[in-house]
Amino acid sequence: MPARILDGTALALTLKERVKQEVRALNEKGIFPGLGAVLVGENPASNVYVSRKEAACKEVGIQSKKVLLPENVSEQELLEAVAKLNADPRVHGILVQLPLPAHINGHKIMQSILPEKDVDGLHAYNQAQLYAGKNALVPCTPQGILHLIHETKIPLQGKHAVVLGRSLIVGKPTAMLLLQENATVAICHSKTPDLRAYTCQADVLIAAIGKPRFITRDMVKPGAIVIDVGITRSPENKLMGDVDFERVKEVAGFITPVPGGVGPMTVACLMENTLLACKNQTLLQKPSRKIVIGVAGSTKGTDMQALIDGIESKSLNAQIGLVCSDKQDAYILERARKHALPAEFLNPKAFSSREAFDMEMAQRLRAARVEIVLLIGYKRIVSKPLLDAFPNRVWNIHPSLLPAFNGKFDADVHQEVLNAGVKLTGATLHIVTEDVDKGPILLQQAVQIEENESVDSLKQKVQAAEMEMLVRAIREYSQGTLAPFKQESPAMERIQSEALQ
Ligand code: NAP
Predict the structure, then answer these.
(1) To pair with 399 at 20 to 30 A between CA atoms, which of 101, 381, 420, 479?
(2) Can you identify the CATH homologous superfamily of domain 291-500?
(3) Buried b (16+ CB within 10 A) or exposed e, 343-381
(4) pTM over 0.70
């Protein structure tokens, strides 16, 4: 009896219909799944694949965004394009169409995609999850293969499965999925001697080698499920699979055709993965973890009050692990004690050097399990021991964007700003490097100065801006998406030049 044909085109339609229904339900909740596709160069086959994926998005109602880059794009530019998609909340899935030009490190590019957006399942995190049997985002072709096998309704448990090909995109992940369903799996490749000895024992045979009509009738066990993944174009531009379909279908139990088998399922599974990624990023959003902040300050502690208010109102998912202050300012300690926060008085004069003082401070902050050290109005230059203990995690909050006021924080900076008659001031949150005032900027916000503005109202406005930035920075930090922008950023220059007008 000839084999039953496993119709990938029909199954893909059913799958896409299911995705479409779910997308519609999400739309009603105001959620619009999105896929970002990056295409480098003019490879005609890649062009066709990306167009097919875009068409499938349209069919199921997924928003698609195509990023086209020239063949000679640099690795850095491509990394930046991926970073933009990573940061775009409208994009839930990212695919970078392979192959990439030879001058680009494909592995590096794949690892730069956020794992939760990696709908091709090629990020090391997703591969490790699959290996551990805790599937996150699984590569699309293997997933499509499993859907096709499930159509046969034959349980895989105890079956002998043979996978020809060991690529990261098809062979290996397919073997993992078959193993998860309790098949006994052999993976064969170009160095496997006597391939036929394996294929003839296979209850399930997956051919993914890219050698047209390589699997002949005599290599197939009668009644086997044969899945043909291979795609090769003949000189007449005809698509050919790895299996001699016409002859093998006479002995196999089930067989996929080429075209119309695995190919359409790959695209449908990309839709399924994008939907899954979107649901994970929107519906299942985990609460961000609580960040322990250390506060070091020597001002009157008004920002510290704002920080405490933020934590108390739960707009900040953080806790204060330790407050350190020197004797110049007892206010900050007073406030800490009022709120029963762990606080320590540390007098720099009691130490032989600034380094020794910072070493002690770092030790106390570490003991309090502090993750971020926030300097509040701290004009003192921080030394290496503290920066080494908290690399990129010593943050300083500046009450003014005006370069003219650098180093004048002992005076009332808001009064100075008003005296200067400027229209704009603001706040900057930056990572401290060797110099408190010159680290990379994390966030900044401008504050408009009204006619007849009073010091008090300006102070409140600047503090509100600081609070907003702090909440955002801590939230983004806990989600791993906080990226410092460069010191010489156009935003910074624009704000500063406006401020000085
Ligand atoms: P690949 O990275 O080139 O891997 C091919 C694998 O086949 C390698 O592991 C190779 O062994 C093995 N191989 C080559 N010649 C062999 C032989 N004579 N005997 C045994 N093993 C042999 O290719 P891939 O990306 O996995 O893709 C495989 C095929 O599937 C291609 O035709 C591709 O176009 C097609 N494909 C189709 C879809 C779809 O949606 N339908 C998706 C992806 C790929 P070594 O490791 O020892 O070199």
Answers:
(1) 479
(2) Formyl transferase, N-terminal domain (3.40.50.170)
(3) bbebebeeeeebeebbbbbbebbeebebbbbbbbbbeee
(4) no
